[in-house]
Amino acid sequence: MKIFVFASIRGSTNSFRPEREIFEGLARKGHDVTLMTRGSEEQLAILKKAGIRVIDGEASKKICLESIKTIRKELKHNHYDIVYATNSKTIPNAGFACIGLKVKFVVYRGTTGGLYRHDPTAYLTILHPRVDGVVCVSEAVRQDVLKQVWKNKQKVVKIYKGHNLHWYKDKPTADLSEFGIKKGDYTVICAVNARPSKGIAVMLEASNYLADIGNLHLLLVGRGMDKNPYTDLINNSKMSERIHLTGYRYDAPSLTKASDVLVQPSISGEGLPRAVMEAMGIGTAVVITPTGGGKEIIEDGESGFIVPIKDPKAIASKVRELYHNPQLAKKMVDINLAKIAGELSSETTVENYISYFEKLVSAND
């Protein structure tokens, strides 16, 4: 197949790698992949080394005439089977460029919520009339999309964005002493950017129920947690001196590797949390809420714990259980490592993309 991808690769290598692996995997399998993007010389070199042709360009806004013209020119001069776009800026521009052409137009959806038939902007992205298929990162996202799309419901599919154990095999373990965390201490990590939907306030409330464990620390990794309401919650926590803010860190996976348990306390809006997938591949136990796709990949009590939304006592209870039962944590970690090596591997993801694209191309409609 000949595949044209319009995607953004800005951000850390860690954040883009699962998506990049899809494009590289398609190329390794013998498919002709062209990627329109803009990135660092290092990122572009990796893509080109994988056999991906790169066109310089990015969408500056949702309707960018320059991007539309560039894509349309490319599609007219070269026969493509699939055009694949991945975000709120690339999707509308690629969609308009595909109008009147026979190529199959596929889009990606990575979150639940925020998609409504009555919202005009939805018709620039997932509900764009030119869309032939939607790849959803989890079943929760797929069900959310199915409630809103008007047509081609059978072409709205779930494909997990897999990871690779080799990404984490040689990942260094961070030295947490920079935060005053000593060897032998127990570290709980939350790796998210602070938004109300991420539930950081719930985690901070949970810290009050864990304060009696003298060597337990809470590591908060991400932007925005140095502002209210979080600073007040931290200062008023019974274990405030053992709550540490790191800000945004490119080495977040290394911090997760150095921690004992990752908590994802989200209250809404999740697709398939990357931090949870990273913890599974690194070998760190997880406690999550049932928002989005996390509940699809974690089996409660077997490979991790799933706690009710907005329940700080439940979070504290499960963290306490893992603290006192390292054998259970080890069992959960081993199960998750096997999942990342199998059904949640990047190789499986690539095979699923190929199968889906081939079905779309072979369809007569």
Provide structural commentary.
This protein is of the alpha/beta class and 365 residues long. The chain folds into two domains: 2-162 and 345-362, Rossmann fold (3-Layer(aba) Sandwich), CATH 3.40.50; 166-341, Rossmann fold (3-Layer(aba) Sandwich), CATH 3.40.50. It contains 14 helices and 13 strands. It has a seven-stranded parallel β-sheet with strand order 3-2-1-4-5-6-7, with helices on both faces. The longest helix has 17 residues, at 346-362. The protein is elongated and about 65 Å long.
Q: How many beta-strand runs?
A: 13
CATH fold descriptor of the largest domain: Rossmann fold
pLDDT < 50 runs, ≥5 residues: none
CATH class placement of the largest domain: Alpha Beta
- Structural class, judged by helices and strands? alpha/beta
Output the number of helix runs: 14
Structure in a nutshell:
The protein has 365 residues and is α/β, with parallel strands linked by helices. The protein is built from 14 helices and 13 strands.
Features:
single chain; 13 strands; alpha/beta; Rossmann fold; elongated; 39% helix; 14 helices; seven-stranded parallel beta sheet; six-stranded parallel beta sheet; 365 residues; 2 domains
